[in-house]
Design a protein that fits this description.
329 residues; alpha/beta; Spore Coat Polysaccharide Biosynthesis Protein SpsA, Chain A
Length: 329
């Protein structure tokens, strides 16, 4: 790792990008301005950089990143060999940066997260915090549906025993010391906002207001959000299997009572056709069984992927040096 100049920490801002050709020209100068302001204030080293991580974009995102890197030394870029998803892209940037800096701040490219919160993040790091979470102080910019489901999701995760920061996504500061330990967490199924708290160390939070997207459109539709949410639950907690076990025991107990009721009714001669009630019971039990199999199957699938030990990211190119060999992490 490069040494900080005059005791000032080297900061790398990690920015995942996927098809961001519309918003990148707007937000890149903002990030550069923030790096410059933090440097001039004496909080960070002049060796601090901005690292764009291209997630196999299909548009001109990588070309724009290369152009930015050729215009100013503060801009750097790496690209994945193919699209692998937001979490993999953030991880690739963090693992690349930890070799060159003292602290990283990961933030999305769209300009929705308040970059001015970085000042307070760095202050809290200088005061001793190794991880500083960027936490939304409200969700007024979200639709009613997204706000309600997101808040409910955080509560469900906490109820299932996951150690997760409420209203925090992937806007956070992490020291290289934490990243060195985090590298040993080798999960293929990534859910960073739930994994980072597992590392420990001293943490703090910064609260900020999230804005509307500056340009372009979101690349995180409802289907991807639901996929990430389910990944978070099944990656951080085994309580769903415990809940299934409880439901199975309860339904079996009800079935046992039903058998006794049928036998007693037959002995007393109070038998009825019972077609409707039978169909309802069979449908209910069938639904419970299929749901249970689906949840258990998800866990088995995750075990299967983990045992294959596939690389979580593959960097195919960098902007700052000729690169001929793919790097796997």
């Amino acid at each position: 790792m490069e040494q900080a100049v005059e005791g000032k920490p080297i900061l790398w801002i990690i920015i995942p990008c996927y098809n961001e050709q519309e918003v990148l020209p707007e937000t890149a100068p903002m990030f550069l301005g923030k790096i410059t302001a933090l440097t001039e204030s004496g909080k960070i080293s002049s060796k601090s950089r901005i690292l764009f991580v291209n997630d196999g974009s299909k548009d001109k995102t990588w070309d724009i990143i290369c152009d930015l890197a050729s215009q100013d030394e503060h801009y750097l870029g790496i690209t994945q060999s193919r699209n692998r998803g937001h979490q993999s892209t953030v991880l690739a940037g963090l693992m690349e940066a930890k070799k060159h800096c003292d602290i990283t701040i990961s933030i999305d490219c769209d300009g929705q997260d308040d970059i001015n919160a970085m000042d307070e993040m760095v202050d809290k790091y200088l005061a001793g915090a190794e991880v500083v979470y960027g936490v939304r102080n409200n969700r007024d910019s979200d639709t009613w549906f997204k706000r309600t489901t997101a808040q409910g999701y955080y509560k469900v995760l906490n109820a299932l025993g996951a150690d997760i920061v409420y209203n925090h996504a992937d806007y956070r500061l992490m020291s290289s010391r934490v990243l060195d330990e985090f590298e040993d967490y080798g999960e293929v199924n990534l859910f960073l906002r739930g994994m980072v708290p597992l590392v420990g160390f001293k943490t703090d939070s910064v609260y900020y207001e999230r804005h509307e997207r500056i340009a372009g459109k979101s690349h995180y539709p409802l289907s991807k959000m639901l996929h990430l949410a389910f990944d978070g639950i099944t990656s951080l907690s085994i309580k769903p299997i415990s809940i299934i076990t409880f439901i199975g025991c309860f339904v079996s107990f009800l079935g046992f009572l039903g058998i006794i009721w049928v036998i007693v009714g037959a002995l007393l001669g109070n038998t009825t056709d019972g077609w409707a009630s039978t169909i309802v019971i069979i449908s209910f039990l069938g639904g419970i069984q299929l749901l249970s199999l689906g949840v258990i199957g998800t866990y088995i699938g995750k075990i299967y992927l983990e045992t294959k030990r596939r690389p979580r990211f593959v960097i195919s190119d960098r902007t700052w040096e000729p690169y001929t060999r793919e790097y796997k992490g």
